[in-house]
Design goal:
Layout lengths: L1 E2 L5 H12 L8 E3 L10 E3 L2 H6 L3 E4 L3 E13 L3 H39 L5 H46 L2 H7 L3 E7 L12 E5 L5 E10 L11 E7 L9 E17 L5 E3 L2 E9 L2 E7 L10 E3 L7 E5 L1 H19 L1
Antiparallel strand pairs: 1-8, 2-3, 3-13, 4-15, 5-6, 5-10, 6-9, 7-8, 7-10, 8-9, 10-14, 11-12, 12-13
Helix pairs in contact: 1-6, 3-4
Length: about 325
């Protein structure tokens, strides 16, 4: 699993409220530009204030990252797979029983026929033996047909890989039946295709604090009717926290690379319908910088291209800076009135 840091927004909010009502009101400043407030204000915090809120910064270098496609995952209920596996095992047992009965009936019929020819057995007894032999022949044909029908059904419903696993009762299918692993159907957005199936993917855990590793299994035999995109089957660990029937967000590598800076969710703030980060502008000043979030790594972490090289990014405390900036703008608006 790929782990991500726990969010600290609630803690920052508590600190901010305490500081707003305390000695901060005379020290934290936002230098608002005069041009209608279109440009983000510069937020000024002293070194002491930065320490109080636990502000952390880092200079992050751009690196090559695999491009991720945000897809849609559904944890499937494998009750039908279990049913098919059991039905096939029962049909196979019936076929073997029918084969054994036919062999016994064949030997009895041949023996009876020889005895009739030597006048050692009445003809009616030989005819009875032949009737039993013909009946067992029909039973064998029916059992064989049932096995072949279930084989075809398994392949039609689950595809060649899982279908073969049902027929052979493979370890993979047994793990799915016993819930040691979970079957996840991942569907790409409509119109998106991949040059070749992905070997792995990530899924957002229910707790949203980790990503769950998904291992590719096979192409799906049907799409998600809500999405209408290309679908694949993946497997996840049975202890991943996922449950049958759950929906999750999945991240599938496209096979392409993407150069950018990995930015965690704690560094990103939302304002006026878009995402921003704060960059250090000086020892005591910070400025909000817009970013694009079209390359997700999880639901809240991104690979970002539009951060100037060498910039010092605020990794912890961005939410407090946004709140102080907003508070300063409100004070400025009150002065204008």
């Amino acid at each position: 699993m790929v782990r991500h840091p726990m969010r600290a927004l609630a803690a920052c909010g508590v600190i901010l409220l305490a500081l707003i009502s305390g000695p901060w009101s005379g020290y934290a400043q936002a230098e608002t530009p005069a041009a209608g407030g279109r440009e983000p204000a510069t937020v000024k915090l002293s070194a002491t204030q930065q320490k109080q809120i636990g502000l952390q910064t880092a200079v992050l270098a751009a690196e090559s990252h695999p491009e991720q496609i945000r897809a849609y995952g559904t944890v499937l209920d494998v009750a039908r797979l279990t049913e098919l596996t059991n039905n096939y095992a029962n049909a196979q047992a019936q076929l073997q029983t029918a084969q054994a009965r036919l062999e016994v009936a064949r030997l009895a019929y041949e023996r009876a026929r020889d005895l009739v020819q030597s006048a050692a057995m009445p003809k009616k007894d030989a005819e009875a033996a032949e009737g039993t032999f013909r009946t067992d022949q029909a039973a064998l044909a029916a059992a064989d047909s049932q096995v072949k029908t279930l084989m075809a059904t398994a392949r039609q419903e689950w595809g060649a890989v899982i279908g073969r696993g049902i027929i052979e009762r493979s370890p993979q299918v047994v793990q799915l039946i016993e819930r040691e692993q979970l079957l996840v159907q991942v569907t790409l957005p409509p119109g998106v295709t991949l040059a070749e199936p992905p070997r792995f993917a990530l899924a957002q855990a229910p707790t949203r604090s980790v990503n769950i590793d998904l291992r590719y299994l096979s192409p799906a035999t049907r799409t998600d009717p809500r999405i209408q995109g290309v679908s694949y089957y993946f497997v996840a660990g049975g202890d991943s926290g996922l449950l049958p029937g759950m929906n999750t967000t999945a991240y599938v590598p496209s096979g392409k690379s993407y150069d950018g800076v990995f930015v965690e969710d704690t560094a990103i703030v939302q304002w006026q319908g878009r995402a921003w980060v704060y960059l250090r502008a000086g020892p005591e000043t910070f400025k909000r910088h817009p970013i694009r979030t079209d390359q997700p790594v999880s639901d809240d972490d991104y690979v970002v291209q539009d951060i100037p090289p060498g910039s010092e990014l605020v990794m912890r405390g961005a939410q407090v800076l946004l709140s102080e900036e907003a508070k300063s703008e409100l004070r400025g608006g009150g002065d204008d009135d």
